[in-house]
C-alpha cells in the first residue's frame, strides 16, 4: 500500500516535470541571448506600471516552452508514449503563463521585477499549469495534485539556491 502511494506521488511529479523545466530554464536567457525583447513590449497597464517588466522576455518564454517540450519528448521516448509531448506542451504553456500572471500581479502590487512575493513566486506557474493540464487530461487525482502543490515550494527553493550558487541568479529566491 505504501509503495503504491509513493509510486503515485513520484509519478505525479514525473508527469509535471515539463512545467518545472519551463519555469526554471528561462533564468538562463541572459546567458544565451545578448539582447532580450520584453514580453510586454514595454506596454503599461491602466495603473501606469509595466504589464510584467523587463525580466520577462520573449526569448525566456520560448526557452521555457521548448525546454518543457524537450522533457516531454524524453518522457515519451522513455515510456514509448508520445502523448507526453502533448502533455508537455500543455504543462509548459501553463507554466509560462502562470509565471507571467505572477509577474503581472506583482507589478499591480508595486513589487519591482526581481523582488520576492512569497507564494505567488513559488506557486503561480504550477497552479496554472495544473489547471490547464486537468482541463485536458484526467489522470491526476486530488492527492497527487495536493502533493505537487505541497512539494513545489521546496523544489522551487532548492532550484533557486542552486542557480544562485552557480551565479545564474542574483538572489537565492
Topology diagram in text:
Layout: H1 2-24, H2 29-32, H3 58-79, H4 83-108, H5 120-136, H6 142-165
Helix pairs in contact: 1-3, 1-4, 1-5, 1-6, 3-4, 4-5, 5-6
In short:
This protein has 173 residues and is mostly helical.
Protein architecture, described:
With 173 residues, the protein is mainly alpha-helical. The protein has one domain. Helices cover 67% and strands 0% of the residues. It contains six helices and no strands. The protein has helices spanning 2-24, 29-32, 58-79, 83-108, 120-136, 142-165. The termini are far apart.
Percent range of helical residues: 55-70%
Query: Mean pLDDT across all residues, rounded?
Result: 95
Structural class assignment: mainly alpha
Low-confidence stretches: none
Backbone shape: globular
CA radius of gyration: 16 Å
Per DSSP E runs of 2 or more residues, the count of β-strands stands at 0
Q: Helix count? A: 6
Order of helices and strands: HHHHHH
Query: Biggest β-sheet, characterized?
Result: none
The figure for the number of domains is 1
Strand content: under 5%
Distance between the termini: 36 Å
